[in-house]
Design brief:
Cyclophilin; alpha+beta; hydrolase; 9-stranded mixed β-sheet; PxpB
Length: 252
């Protein structure tokens, strides 16, 4: 039974954000398809080079367009976005070109990542089984957010759809790999978090003196092969910025 006055949201939707923004939303919740649609449409809008568009970026399930309303009116931008939306099924569209696969050596558990056992238990796995699965899983950079250069990664299998902690961890270090709600976050800088700390890497994601300053891009993929603490320490001594991480191009 529908509530009086209730209008069900229909996706994809196009909405204004203040005077200079417009957002295209594909779903209320994250899925592989909704994130794929956001990444693909974001890349397509960038390729259009519409006069008056100043910035295009994607979130987990949406695309934000910042524009100059004096050069490109709201109605005109809405029409352009609508035409692009109906041009194909974005939930099955190819992801943007130029993506990379990063392999990031990771210590799971130990004193460096003390909440692995808790996460494994919540997922119904042994620690060894959790490490085996997480170290072999490839995840996508769903979006960059919360802090400069910091990726949300996933989506993971639903066994990893575990809740956030009731209280914050006061601080995890740069390079910490944390998990919750079927996603992972790789921390760009030391930070408090409500997500559980399962792995520790030596990678530096935010490099303000470099161009670009963000190491990762939305659509990149990552894998976190397991190493022990001594191996990670040795990798970091060789390259304190990457900690043994390496990248290769993804052929779409």
């Amino acid at each position: 039974m529908e509530r009086e006055g209730y209008v069900e949201q229909v996706y994809p939707s196009i909405d204004t954000v203040g005077l200079t923004g417009m957002i295209v939303t594909f779903a209320a919740e994250l899925s592989e398809a909704s994130n794929r649609a956001a990444l693909a449409l974001c890349g397509a809008v960038k390729q259009q080079n519409w006069p008056g568009v100043l910035e295009v970026s994607s979130t987990l399930t949406s695309v934000y367009v910042r524009f100059d309303p004096d050069g490109l009116g709201h109605d005109r931008l809405r029409a352009l976005l609508q035409d692009l939306l109906i041009s194909q099924d974005w939930s099955t569209a190819a992801l943007p070109e130029g993506r990379r696969l990063w392999r990031v050596p990771t210590v799971y558990g130990t004193d460096l990542a003390p909440q692995l056992a808790e996460v494994a238990d919540l997922a119904g796995l042994s620690e060894a089984a959790a490490i085996e699965e997480l170290s072999q899983t490839r995840v996508r950079v769903l979006t960059i957010g919360f802090a400069p250069g910091q990726p949300y990664l996933g989506p993971l299998d639903q066994k990893w759809n575990i809740p956030r902690q009731e209280a914050l961890t006061a601080q995890v270090p740069r390079g910490a790999l944390v998990l919750s709600v079927a996603q992972m976050v790789l921390f760009a800088n030391p930070s408090p978090t409500g997500w559980r700390h399962i792995g520790q890497t030596g990678i530096t994601l935010f490099r303000p003196d470099d161009d670009p300053a963000f190491l990762l891009r939305p659509g990149d993929e990552l894998q976190f092969p397991a190493v022990n603490p001594a191996e990670l320490s040795q990798l970091m001594s060789r390259d304190p910025h990457l900690g043994g991480a390496s990248a290769e191009g993804i052929v779409s």
